[in-house]
Amino acid sequence: MDFVRSPEWPVVPIGGLAGNSATARYSTAPGTPGAVGRATPPPAGPPPPYRPPAGTGPTNRPPAAPPVPVKILVAGGFGVGKTTTVGAISEIAPLTTEAEMTSAGIGVDDPGVRSTKTTTTVAMDFGCVTIDRSLKLYLFGTPGQARFGFMWDDLARGALGALVVVDSARLDDCFPAIDFFERAGLPFVVGVNAFDGRLALELGEIRWALAIGDHVPLVQFDARDRLSVRDALLVVLDRALDRATRDRKA
């Protein structure tokens, strides 16, 4: 039978080391330090401290500050596009409190002949949008009907500005919102919603009809278009910043 024969190791004296033992083959002379591995001597002194690879260590930069929250109201009459405005710009799914319109609202809630509106806001709308790393807007849409006017004081608490949405074909519906913010002393911007891409009146005629001064910005926007809503809200921010700057200097 074929077999593999072990090498002939020298005869070991009694009490000596076996010739094929690990100690006999790899040990060093008495009194010398043992080798690390097979050939590398141990380093002299304590091992050096651990240094992480370049680019992986912690930085000394302070953590980025959270964005400043700014509360903005979106107000106006019934059926002028407040819920659409909040939904168009919000970066989250907007919170809405819509209820189906019933026959009880006939003759009370008039959305206009051009509207196909079948629901109405019974409490508020809520959405938010980040302007940049330092600023975040929280939008609160108010109910448009006069019977929900008692909620306006609570919704306006802590707000820095407001966008009053206007339907150029139904200017009468926006008078309560304009009167409210004028009495409250809250900066506001009148945004004329361009239904079907056009206005029933020119902006100059709307300013005259609403009897608002030149210090109140009057802009045209489309409540369905995100960029258009953004531009209108930036005007509100500019108005609020101007008011805050004047109050600080006073």
From TrEMBL:
InterPro entries listed in its UniProt record: Gliding_Motility_GTPase, Gpn, P-loop_NTPase
SUPFAM superfamilies attached to this UniProt entry: P-loop containing nucleoside triphosphate hydrolases (SSF52540)
Pfam families the record matches: ATP_bind_1
Region (Disordered), start-end ranges: 1-65
Keywords on record: GTP-binding, Hydrolase, Nucleotide-binding
Regions of compositional bias (Pro residues) in chain numbering: 40-52
Protein family according to the UniProt entry: Belongs to the GPN-loop GTPase family.
Protein's UniProt name: ATP/GTP-binding protein
Organism of derivation: Micromonospora lupini str. Lupac 08
